[in-house]
Amino acid sequence: MIRLQFISEKNRERYLKIISPIGNILGKIGIHPNILTICGLILSLIACLFYANGSFFWAAWIVVLAGTCDTLDGQLARTFNKKSAFGAFFDSTLDRYSDMLLYLGIAYHFAGGKEIFFKEGSTQSIDASPWMVFIIILTIAGSFMVSYTRARAEAIGVKCNIGLMQRAERIVLLIIGSLLASIPGIGIYIIKLTLVVLAITTNITAIHRMLHVKSQLMKAAGS
């Protein structure tokens, strides 16, 4: 199978080098990785509220912080020998909740929900689009299926960490689209296009993983 990646391993390593000093400081003062996992979820909830209000630019920066927490918890666990089976399970579970919160906030906005704060200059009624809510539902389904296919594959002994739109890629693309959403006039179209791309590529990634697992199982059966 072709191995597709949106974020290269070199870029991942560069990012880890940038934030690793923060992880070292947190580890030395006794912060447990699970605390960072919970902080990531709380930040995702805050981002959800900003998305619901249509404040995409500020939501994006909160997602950056949430993503940093999500990266640091794993780094902290590895560096300070705090890895555990429950920690991995806990992190993966809260990641799913975090993903769901972000998309629910965006769905609320495009469903035409009432503003939560910063009402002045709101575009809630203008941005309302039932079709975008449908697209977001597809994105949620695709995101969850990407995670499920990997979990199910690994349960039957097949490594399945491949695909164009894994979680890190989804978060980065959502952040970029959200930041560009603040551009007057065209911003709303950029975030809509971003969500359409996410809806398509997440489901393609899930299908890619299914085909990969089938290929690996057929190879194992023939060997």
| Residue fraction in strands | under 5%
Shape: globular
**Overall structural domain count:** 1
CATH fold node name: Four Helix Bundle (Hemerythrin (Met), subunit A)
Chain-averaged pLDDT: 88
Structure write-up:
By secondary structure, this protein is mainly alpha-helical. Helix content is 76%, strand content 0%. It has a single domain, classed as Up-down Bundle (Four Helix Bundle (Hemerythrin (Met), subunit A)), CATH 1.20.120.1760. The protein has helices spanning 9-28, 33-52, 56-79, 85-110, 124-127, 130-155, 167-180, 187-222. The longest helix is centred in the C-terminal third of the chain and has 36 residues, at 187-222. The radius of gyration is 19 Å and the shape is globular.
Task: State the main characteristics.
single chain, 223 residues, mainly alpha, Four Helix Bundle (Hemerythrin (Met), subunit A), 76% helix, globular
